[in-house]
Amino acid sequence: MVDLVNDERADAGCPAVTVDSRLTRAAQKHSDDMARREYLSHTSPDGRTFDERIRDEGYPRPAAENIAMGLSSPEAVMDAWMSSDGHRRNILNCDITTIGVGVNSDGWYWTQNFGY
User: What ranges in the chain are assigned the alpha helix state H?
Assistant: First the structure.
């Protein structure tokens, strides 16, 4: 998934993002939570937002979050995100420097967390 993101960023003239373990933990926990509680939202049922979840993992500068469900391959998810203005804007934001990705195959819940 990170390679696909960086391919799109390179085509747009943006620098590559690097993986940050704190963003990966936040993304994986959100994917697992969405699968367990069967929802798709940037806001958890308990009211926590993506930036709160990212900060809770120790990452100081949250930037954005992309989520998806029901698609079983990274390529299909990236195609969907790149066809959506908001998701595409997050992926191609050249100010973003880091990424973390989480996936839960029980319903195929995907999360990308981005940081500055």
Answer: 2-11, 21-37, 50-56, 74-82, 85-91
